[in-house]
TrEMBL record:
Ranges where the ABM domain occurs: 2-91
Highest taxon, organism lineage: Bacteria
Protein name per its UniProtKB record: Antibiotic biosynthesis monooxygenase
Organism expressing this protein natively: Propioniciclava coleopterorum
Keyword set, alphabetical order: Monooxygenase, Oxidoreductase
Keyword Oxidoreductase carried by entry: yes
GO molecular function annotation: monooxygenase activity
The keyword Oxidoreductase appears for this protein: yes
Segments crossing the lipid bilayer: none
InterPro entries from the UniProt entry: ABM_dom, AI-2_Isomerase_LsrG, Dimeric_a/b-barrel
Amino acid sequence: MIFICVKWTVKPEYADDWIELTRPFTEATRAEPGNLFFEWSRSVEDPNQYVLIEAFREDAAEAHVTSDHFRAAQAELPQYLPVTPRVRNVVMPGDHWDELGEFRVD
């Protein structure tokens, strides 16, 4: 899978509305056949920062970045941001979450 983590810094006046502002993009991406997960979290240290964790099957990445909803997000979302989002991505085997062995619950 292609595993992607993106840090989105949002202008303070839009931070509380970010999940709603991104809802069409989020819902359309989650509906893509190759999407494994697409999950937003808000930073506990910076209320203007959201972290997006997403994953796609390796053969689905091109369809995602060329989709109409991706292009719409590219056009719409930058107005709410003071800086370009920061990203890390990696291709890894499997398409699932592993258990955290160091904190095993019996």
